[in-house]
Specification:
Length: 286
């Protein structure tokens, strides 16, 4: 969920869990303010209805963090690209959703493109692969449930996130001691400088908007489409680094970007064609 954060391994290793906790706490405060101002009306939900979503979110944070600690960046990125096909598999098996063959085939150039961008740094180890596999499975479940719960419970993105954010924050509070310091220097209850507080609050406001947009995108499109946005962002980040900051871009990376963009464009074309076909059927129906 927080893939917009820097993938720097050292930074993620140190503070990602308690930073995520703060971000979700700020997200809930933002939503509380929104409902107080009449932006949406909270819908009464039972905690048990939101519990799987909150648990899968915590698992997503923990296992992707462990994957990043135990694997190289290339291996981490390659594993992350497997989220899309796993989502297709989960929706097909558990929810009976059918995907046309041409949609499934668009995943081939996308996965190949990510591999070409990351293969130079791909190294496998048993522990790293275990964490990466668990991370992909839990992340895929979380993204599927973000969309499924909105439809199942008849709630919008704000109403669902309003319940999930505080529940996940409370769970992460109990998880933090196993991965990061709680008190003292660098701990969530340790000393904070004014500049650190300001930066965290600003990043929390951004996280609020990002979380809300993610829920909206998945709820109104699909988890697969949301992942396509993620792959597109990956390409734009590499191209932006090359064009704006003169970061070196190898031939393999260039080919990887082209492969990924080709898959994204093909997916977009097929989905738009599918929507037009569905509209035509509705118009022709007596």
């Amino acid at each position: 969920m927080f893939s917009w954060l820097s993938p720097n391994k050292t930074e993620c290793r140190g503070h990602i869990v308690h930073l995520t906790l703060v971000h979700f706490a700020i997200t809930w405060l933002g939503l509380y303010l929104c409902q107080a101002l009449g932006a949406f009306s909270p819908k009464s939900l039972q905690p048990a209805q939101v519990l799987p979503l909150a648990l899968s979110f915590c698992g997503f944070v923990v296992f992707t963090n462990l994957s990043l600690q135990s694997n190289t960046i290339g291996t981490y990125q390659l594993a992350k690209a497997m989220t899309t096909p796993v989502i297709v598999l989960i929706q097909s098996v558990a929810y009976g959703k059918t995907f046309p063959l041409r949609i499934k085939l668009t995943l081939v150039p996308i996965t190949l493109g990510v591999f070409l961008n990351s293969y130079y740094d791909v190294k496998f180890n048993v522990l790293g692969m275990a964490f990466a596999t668990l991370g992909v499975l839990v992340t895929s479940l979380y993204q599927v449930w973000v969309g499924a719960k909105q439809h199942e419970l008849q709630v919008n993105s704000m109403q669902l996130l309003y319940y999930q954010a505080p529940m996940s924050s409370a769970m992460l509070l109990f998880i933090i001691p196993f991965f990061e310091p709680v008190f003292g220097e660098g701990g969530i209850f340790g000393p904070w400088t004014l500049s650190a507080v300001i930066m965290v609050l600003l990043s929390g406001i951004i996280a609020f908007m990002v979380n809300l947009s993610i829920y909206w995108i998945i709820g109104n499109t699909s988890p697969v489409t949301y992942n396509m946005f993620g792959h597109f962002k990956f390409c734009i980040t590499l191209l932006g680094g090359c064009l704006l900051f003169k970061d070196p871009l190898s031939i393999n990376q260039g080919l990887g970007i082209l492969c990924t963009l080709f898959g994204i464009l093909a997916y977009t074309h097929f989905k738009l064609s599918e929507q037009e076909s569905n509209k035509s059927k509705l118009v022709q129906r007596p």
